[in-house]
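[Discussion] Sanity-checking designs against the backbone

I'm trying to build intuition for which residues belong where. Below is a C-alpha cell string of 209 positions. I'd appreciate it if someone posts a full sequence so I can compare it with mine line by line.
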C-alpha cells in the first residue's frame, strides 16, 4: 500500500486527544493531507458498536464479548476506511488500534495475547501500523491529570487495579512489537511530548523536515 498508517496508544487520561490535535495542526501547517480516525468508530457501523461497548448499562459484558465487538468494529474500519485511504497514498492516523485490544482485553481482561493476536489478524488482514506512538504515563498520574474517571465511560469506571493491568499490557506490547512501537514519556508539558512525537515520525521517515 502506498500510504502510511500511524496509531496512537495509551491508557485513559494520558493526553492522546491533545497530542492528536497538535499533530493535526502541525500537518495542516505543513500542507500534509491526513485522515484522522478513532477506535472503536471511524464509520457509521463502527460508531454504533462503540456506543454498545462504552455504555455503562452494559456492565455485565464479558471480556470475550468486549474483544469480539472491538474486532468487529475494527474489521469494518479497515475494509471501508483505512484500506481505501492507504491505497490512495494517504497518511492515516488512528486514535487506538490493535494494541488497545492487546492491553485491555488480552492482558487486563486475561484473554491472553495469542487469542487477541488471532482476532486482530482476522479483523485487519495485512493492515499493520507503520508506527505506533505509545504515550507512556502510569494510570495513577494520568487520572490525577484528567481529574478522575469519566462517569459515562464504562471502561474508565473500572478500578485502578484494572488500569494498572492495562498499563502492564502496554509495556508487554512494547516488548513484543518493539519494531513498530515507539515509547514516548508524556509526563512533561504537552508541547514537549509533541516535539518527541514529531522527532519519532521524522526518524522513521514518515515526515520530513
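Best answer:
Here's mine. Compare freely.
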Amino acid at each position: 500500500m502506498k500510504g502510511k498508517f500511524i496509531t496512537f496508544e495509551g491508557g485513559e487520561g494520558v493526553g492522546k486527544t491533545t497530542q492528536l490535535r497538535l499533530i493535526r495542526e502541525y500537518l495542516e501547517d505543513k500542507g500534509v493531507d491526513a485522515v484522522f480516525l478513532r477506535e472503536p468508530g471511524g464509520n457509521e457501523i463502527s460508531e454504533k458498536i462503540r456506543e454498545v461497548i462504552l455504555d455503562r448499562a452494559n456492565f455485565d459484558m464479558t471480556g470475550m464479548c468486549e474483544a469480539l465487538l472491538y474486532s468487529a468494529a475494527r474489521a469494518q474500519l479497515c475494509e471501508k476506511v483505512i484500506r481505501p485511504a492507504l491505497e490512495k497514498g494517504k497518511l492515516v492516523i488512528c486514535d487506538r488500534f490493535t494494541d488497545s485490544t492487546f492491553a485491555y482485553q488480552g492482558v487486563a481482561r486475561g484473554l491472553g495475547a495469542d487469542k487477541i493476536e488471532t482476532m486482530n489478524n482476522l479483523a485487519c488482514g495485512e493492515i499493520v501500523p507503520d508506527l505506533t506512538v505509545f504515550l507512556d504515563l502510569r494510570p495513577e498520574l494520568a487520572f490525577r491529570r484528567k481529574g478522575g474517571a469519566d462517569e459515562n465511560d464504562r471502561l474508565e469506571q473500572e478500578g485502578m487495579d484494572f488500569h494498572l493491568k492495562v498499563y502492564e499490557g502496554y509495556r508487554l506490547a512494547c516488548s513484543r512489537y518493539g519494531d513498530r512501537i515507539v515509547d514516548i514519556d508524556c509526563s512533561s508539558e504537552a508541547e514537549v511530548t509533541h516535539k518527541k512525537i514529531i522527532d519519532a515520525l521524522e526518524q522513521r521517515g514518515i515526515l520530513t523536515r
